[in-house]
Amino acid sequence: MLQLNDVVGGYDDAHPVIKNVTFTIDKGKMIGILGPNGCGKSTLLKLISGILPLQNGSVRIDHKVAQSYSSRELARKMAVLPQLHNHSFSHTVRETVALGRYPYQQGIFSSWSQEDENAVVESMRQTGIEKYATEDITYLSGGEQQRTFVAQALAQKSALLLLDEPTNHLDIEHQKQLMDLIQFEVKTHGLTVLSVFHDMNLAALYCDELILLEAGHIVAQGEPHEVLKEKQVEKVYHTKIARISHPVIPKPQISLLPSSYSQKATVVSAQHINILSDYVLVQTPEPLKVVSSSLHNAGIGWYDTFMNRTVDEYYMCADAHEEMERYIQLAGFIPSKTVAMMTAVAVKHAIIKEYEEDGLSIVVVVTAGVGNAVDASKSYLRQPLWHIGTINIWVFINAILTDESLLQAMMTATEAKVKAMADEKIMDTIAQTIATGTSTDSLLIAATQQGEMQQYAGTVTKVGRLIGRGVYEATVEALRDYKRAKGMIE
Amino acid sequence: MTMTRNYILSLVALLISIALGVSIGAVMIPISALWDASNESSTNILWSIRIPRVLLAGLVGAALALAGAAFQGLLKNPLADPYTLGVSSGASLAAVATIYFGFSSSIFGLFTLPFFGMIGAGVSLIIVLAFAKLVDRSMKMETLILTGIIVSSFLGSMISLMIALSGDEIRQIITWLMGSVSMRGWPYVKMIWPFITLGGILIWLNRRELNAMLFGEERAKYLGVNVKKSKWMILIGGAMLTGAAVSVSGTIAFVGLVVPHMTRMLFTTDHRHLLLLSVLNGATLLIICDIISRTIIAPTELPIGVITSFIGAPVFAYIFFKQRRKKG
């Protein structure tokens, strides 16, 4: 659809902005151009659209050199949406969209055909601006104006669309609407789109391919995950970033790291564990990085309030998540900053243990009830019913843990728990085998992200050794406590 | 349809002003004299004085309004008028020089003044365009405006110099500069209508292109407009209109600036209609102003330029006020 071959050009012949750019775009693809300010993104668009002359190389549209098209022919092949500007005079929305049909009108008295009318009506419907049709465009908001110009470009019915930061000045609702609309045209009508973006994350979400420019050169080209590599982006933008995965769709996202972000020194010790009447509570001065299988705010996140709440043995609630959130609020904490679990074990039975080795310290908190003990390897024998009885394990680590070591810490802690169950001979009453846990156990690993970096947390690593030992010992103690409370041992 | 209504309104206003312009004057002439030739002196006044005067006023008004609308659209500047590009200064300088030096040519006779005026307009246009192109190959609108300002202030200073140095001619020069359509007769009408027609057609052919260029040259180009070609056509068309108008009637203020604005506010911003409606309304306004200028303190005639601003400014202010209030 669009081929650039060795394109050189800019505003000044002696100092071209774009240097030897070559790429090809296939029909029906959406391509994003990224790069820092002044790298030549907009200049590249102007070279392709013919606003600036090429100093060298060629731009081909549909296998024909762009300059060989007449103005009108070119406008029928390619629509361009430049950045939004202010205007001294104005048209109505409909008149503006109707101008998109200009390249199809010829002769002195060119008449307005049914096809022209259909194209205008359809593109106004697609962009949802019919209701403004007779309004003056200067009285519309930025988002509505931009949609009007998109409608104008769509009315041109060209196969290629060039966009220069189309979502500039739009809020996220209108950003999404606009990008969804363009993506729909790409997917259903085979529109080919080349768009300049400032927002790498938006580009990663919508584009099939990205082109990363630096000082007029292409430094990377390919699918978003190939282009948005942490090192590469940091080098081109001279900015510290972190690359993360989009939580819902398989696209990379880029996150900035503020350089002046500083944390208060945070160390979790046994004194921080408060046993209150209805829950065990930990509050830290700074949020900790947490991975957990808690009821409230499970998953990976940053939290500064930790709650292990005792509920009645007969606690029944249709929506435990909502009830828990209300409970947290009533207790005076902020639900979005709180991780919370539930147990039927009275909080006074919580076991708190602290370990330290070579300047690395962890705190383990365990509550255990095993009325519902299950052997994971035999759980298929059971009805999937919820029973009371839960082992809740918290591990606070005063160190920096990578995502890798957070997950390894989960494994290490789980293995230690299973061993404690075995050593305490907790039985699965149905399978008549040794249980590995209960059906509703929760585990939480929280790291202060200060101090020593722990790359790994497997069983024989520095932090893994503490976790294995701590979780085992605390769980054994909690299980004995439970047995004692149930009168099974003295 | 509203657009049909707009045309009918403007056309009716024009016809009424023509009828008034033809009949009102030192001698009241009934409109029936047009077809009833029984009163010879009435018919004589009508055909040899009134009708050419009304036609000339109408043509000049139409030309200035059309050129104003086109330049405002092309330059995307609400302050632009037919004089922005310095064309009128060229025409004025040539005319003032003709008076100052008492230059007269037996070949052109009565037309010496308008003839040199047109040459002045043409030369100044060439200077403005050539200089603008020298400064900036792509001839951006801002470059054109600035070049126009440079050229017209320079030419303006030369006009002032001649006024300062002139003796008896001063009254003639000032009167000419303030603009008038009196005592011109048919020859003037015949001389300018081809230029006005041709200039008008050049501009009208670009009515859709002007709509597109309101969003800027870049967007217009993306829409498929051959911007370079349209720009030249509009500039030359506008210069022909302005040069023709200025050379016969002097620099009549306000019409070219305000008629397009009034038409936009009252009717439409769409150049497909704006251009024609400006032509009708520009003609009407100048015919009415001419009637007033020659009747208000008759038998003395005021320069028409005084009246256009005197009447035009308050009317424009009123429309402007109403319009802004409506849009809130």
Walkthrough of the structure:
- With 490 residues, chain A is an alpha/beta fold.
- Chain A is built from 12 helices and 26 strands.
- Chain A has 2 domains: 2-256, Rossmann fold, CATH 3.40.50.300; 270-485, L-amino peptidase D-ALA esterase/amidase (4-Layer Sandwich).
- Chain A has helices at 41-49, 71-77, 93-98, 114-126, 142-155, 172-189, 200-206, 224-227, 230-237, 320-330, 403-423, 462-485; strands at residues 2-9, 18-25, 30-34, 56-61, 64-65, 78-81, 160-164, 192-196, 209-214, 217-222, 241-245, 252-256, 274-275, 279-292, 299-310, 338-343, 351-357, 360-368, 373-374, 391-397, 400-401, 427-428, 433-434, 437-438, 442-447, 453-454.
- In chain A, the strands form 7 sheets. In chain A, strands 13, 14, 15, 16, 17, 18, 20 and 25 form an 8-stranded mixed sheet that branches. In chain A, strands 6-7-8-3-9-10 form a 6-stranded mixed sheet, sandwiched between helices. A 4-stranded antiparallel sheet of chain A has the order 2-1-4-5.
- In chain A, helix 4 packs antiparallel against helix 5 and helix 11 packs parallel to helix 12 (462-485).
- The N and C termini of chain A lie far apart (82 Å).
- Chain B folds into 2 domains: 79-251, ABC transporter involved in vitamin B12 uptake, BtuC (Orthogonal Bundle); 253-328, no CATH class.
- In chain B, helix 2 runs antiparallel to helix 10 (227-249), helix 3 packs parallel to helix 5 and helix 11 (255-266) packs across helix 12.
- The longest helix of chain B is centred in the first third of the chain and has 36 residues, at 40-75.
- At the A-B interface, helix 2 and strand 6 of A face helix 8 and helix 9 of B.
